[in-house]
Design goal:
The complex is a heterodimer. Chain A is 39% helix and 24% strand. Chain A is of the alpha/beta class. In chain A, the strands form two sheets. Chain A has a six-stranded mixed sheet with strand order 6-7-8-3-9-10, with helices on both faces. The longest helix of chain A is centred in the C-terminal third of the chain and has 18 residues. Chain B is mainly α. Classes of the chains: A alpha/beta, B mainly alpha.
Amino acid sequence: MSLLRVEGVSRSFGSVVAVKEVTMTVQPGELRAVIGPNGAGKTTFFNMISGFFPPTKGRIFFADHEITAMPSHRRVALGIARTFQITEIFPELTVRENLRIAVEVASKHRLSLWLSRENETRIEARVAALIELGGLSAKADRQVSELTHGAQRATEIMMALALEPRLLLLDEPTAGMGDDETYHIVRLVRRLHKDQKLAIVLVEHDMRVIFNLADRITVLAEGSALAEGTPDEIAKSEAVQAAYLGKVR
Amino acid sequence: MRKHWGSGVIWLLLFTMPFWMLAVGGYTELAARIVVLGLAAMALNFLLGFTGVLSFGHAAYFGLGAYGVGMTIKYLFPSTAAGVVIGVAAGTLAGAIIGALIVKLRGVYFAMVTIAFGQVFYFIAFRWNSVTGGDDGLTGWGRQPINLGFTTLDIQGNDKAFYYFVLALFTISVAVMALLLRGPFGRTLLAIRENERRARFLGIPIELHIWLSFVISCFFASLAGALFALVNNFTDPRFLRWDQSGTFVIMAVMGGMRSFWGPLMGATVYVLLQDYLSSHTENWMSFVGLVFVLVVLFFPRGIVGTARTRTVAEP
């Protein structure tokens, strides 16, 4: 059974068609990269899966629930979590507080006025485990706005992970990072994929990152799905080379 | 530790105020006014400072509380308690309905629509002469002694008794607001203030939580309004007007909207300036405005916010 099934989705903004009848299926535990030249519609496609806005045409299923027009907070409850191209965190709070809010919401305490000692202990332990997993132990009690871009991104990924998702959507997780930071994030993503068997869909520009991580790759160009296959197949595809490098003939 | 110490000083001052207010040139009613308007500003700040949503129409709920208590005592039954309950119920209900209509709006649009709804209530109070007293306000009523069963609380004749009645309700309100903000629900509101998009994608239904915060804020604003009518034994349609809403925003911003006690400080400064200046000049508001501008320019985090940053920076 597939985890995510996108059937012929389109999205237009006025007369501009950003995404045109794209179909894609992601299996549980798969790491799928979505690539394409600038303006190919990757982020628009991503936003439809996470519920930022609905498609104008087509349908989306997640674990056999139709989620085409479902509000984003309900998708989160089903198990879809995402990060953003521009890191979205709570800047004036510490790493620990950021994660704590995520864990509390994930454990259905968003309307609680206080926590029992038992829940308090459980939540603190979960937050500590996420800090450890994200390699953020040294920075746990610092305000996130003071941290490096890489540490902020790691915090954001850990917040998404706090929601115990079945599908993690990462929108350009290494955008604007130096080599060291990119390496750190790639290692983190690989660990989540290998150790936790988490299905991940990621949009990325950095080809090293993609060929390093992805099980399969979907190539978008001018809003349409141009090709899909393993990294090897995609690397050899003439259509893909043409889309990236310009048509040969 | 230092924070608890600060709260302790504030409570000590509040609980002893009637005993030294005269010595420093004030009077007991002034103390009650500080506490009541402080409550209104703290109620607004529940929404503004701790949820990140600016309402420019809180005078509507404040005024509904005021008219609720006045009209109950004048027309229905001469009971202070019943008046306060009905006033708070009216303000909260209006907040719940209006909140549900506007909760999808953001920023300036939200603020504009809150003004518009607020003005509706002002014009009703202003025009409906036969019931609300129109422009002259609602007169011919006053606060009634409260029968507690074993004793009667003479809030009518005894200024100090009335002050402590107001302070008791203030204390309960502040404790409830602090409790709400300290737990997981309060943290979801902070999350919305800090980054609405992230909050939404953590699975928080943003509109529901903003609505809850709005209704809680309106509840305490209407309680403050009811008490303010009791302080004055009078309600004025201007309690409902948009400039009254602006006053609450000024108090919150001047005192420091990121701090829990800030709005009380802002209200204190505002009420004292008003009391002192208005006996010297009709244009007292321009001096208050000047102070506000100076505070915003030199202490952008408000009086309390700035004081806290300074103490944190000390070695």
